[in-house]
Specification:
The chain is mostly helical. The protein is built from 11 helices and 2 strands.
Amino acid sequence: MKKAAFKLFGGENPESVLAKRIKIFVLIGIVFVVLNKLTLSRFSPLPNFEMIIPTLCVVGCLSLHPSGNRFWRHSTRYFVMMALISVSLADLLIWGFRSIYVFTWSGFMICWLLAVREKISVFGKFRSLLWRTTLTAALAILIFDIYTSFGWAFLTGARTFAGFTAVFLAQIPFTLYHLLSLLFVPPLVGLAKALIKVKVPVPVAVPVAAKARSGV
């Protein structure tokens, strides 16, 4: 058990420990995206209650730089590609291809691009991280819903002003439900903060007299 824990959370030095934990956080993000498709997307009692956009925004907003080989060094930069591959495979396997996926998949990419502009240091204060990531996720949800509503109106042939207006008005309650997905942001930010807590050895000045008595 201790060996398994060391492999997951330990390391030879603080830098390697931190890099390992960032990798774990990235992998957890992928797991959350997949679980969303297998659970919330199919059985959630609330429409549009999902953790894909919150996960994309938290991982995208935080400045994470895991060391290691080339794959891990670029894992956070290309997290969205791994997430989109997972989402698309789940969508195709569960529901088959639908035209609206062109807009939902590209909508997730837009959310990611919005998040990576932030570049928030994960070592900042929790309250500041939570505020900025939540605000980014809320904005991403609004943009995603407007974008996909436009796509739905376009695909269904409602391409007149009245048609677009009707679609956007019908989307309002679903967007309000969608904003409840922000509940996933605090635990994700908390998880990131918990994983980066790495003990760093700090040299302590010892008085000369104390050194003499200890035989140093």
